[in-house]
Amino acid sequence: xxxxxxxxxxxxxxxxxxxxxxxxxxxxxxxxxxxxxxxxxxxxxxxxxxxxxxxxxxxxxxxxxxxxxxxxxxxxxxxxxxxxxxxxxxxxxxxxxxxxxxxxxxxxxxxxxxxxxxxxxxxxxxxxxxxxxxxxxxxxxxxxxxxxxxxxxxxxxxxxxxxxxxxxxxxxxxxxxxxxxxxxxxxxxxxxxxxxx
Length: 197
What we know:
By secondary structure, this protein is α/β, with parallel strands linked by helices. The chain is built from six helices and eleven strands. It has one domain (4-195): 3-Layer(aba) Sandwich (Rossmann fold), CATH 3.40.50. Strand 9 (150-156) and strand 10 (158-166) form a beta hairpin. It is globular, with a radius of gyration of 15 Å.
């Protein structure tokens, strides 16, 4: 869904071994899994279903292997989205994906650089300062039922969850692969997280 090449490039630049695949067996045998994405929630879920990837993603998460969701890959982890009508997600975490409120002062989509304020420091933030700028492109954001999974927040008209972390699952609304040195640091840290687990 849109940004596979840039995510692959970011991991390669950070020194990680990476393979882009739609093969369920390769996903299940991988030491870590990354689900990136740009585009519409409903299309994402339809593509995952069509390719037979929902089960290997859920099995990978439940097995405890490191998992990183990026942008739409974060949103897909939740119960449902209101984008273009109701659509069910992977339901790994309870909560909804909701649209930014319409105001005259804020442009939607939220596009550009913004600060991530840490609530909890996941392993991918080792050596990265709090209140660091990262690159965002999105019109919807996650609203988790369980506030304890929120690892970082960002302000854009509302304070929204821009990063989650629970056990082996870390996911960001921002794009590390487009966020220069800090973003490459996140990809490198995730690779270390994979190697150490």
